[in-house]
Amino acid sequence: MSEYLKGKIAVVTGSANGIGRAAAVRLAREGADVAILDREEAPLKEVEAEIAGLGRRAFALALDLTDRRSVKAAFGEIRGALGMVDVLVNNVGGGARTRSSEFFSSEAEVWDDVVNLSLMTTMMCSRQVVPDMRERKSGKIVSVASDTAFYGDMSMSEYAAAKAGVIGFTRSLARELGPFNVNVNVIAPGPTRTRALAWQSEERLQKMISSIPLGRLGDPMEIANAINFLATDQSSFITGQVIPVNGGRVFR
Description:
Low-confidence stretches: none
Radius of gyration: 17 Å
CATH class: Alpha Beta
CATH topology: Rossmann fold
Distance between the termini: 31 Å
């Protein structure tokens, strides 16, 4: 453990499973104390215990991250329990999964759900930490988008739109916060071995894999390693950037 984040406070949203869980543990291994936010309490407690086992403070909060009042309250609790946030990882998000369809037959309610979960949560959580980061002239915001924003996967138009929104939001925020020494960047994973792929048919999954030059799905810790890099001072001169971690499925 190099402990580039020793003494830092990190928040990871959507951290009960998959990429978020891997990111929370990876940041803790780097020395950070970590607040973990998700609506699934039982697996969240498992992550909390894993982080505590690494000798770091962990603070688990089960909440609906699309509920703005709950988000505001949660960040207030985090400041009280751990201190000011140094690193925010906006990971929570998701596509329509079993409700997915081609756009011509899609429903507006599904668009709302996906955009709220994958874009509005990023904006809302960022809003909670930006004033303090500006004042202290220090901070890292890392958001998780998707290479679907570039690739344009079939039957995922609302998800592609939401994740493209995360990228646009990040670039604008990076320009605003650059003068305050705050770095704002995006990771764009490709297909990764998480439960989000469980609803995919085997045929569609194999088609995804065939589109990846490395010939396999990503592992959550491979995404977490990139998040960790952007969360540390190793990336101090990088801001407003999108880093695909996708086995070469999309070149940027």
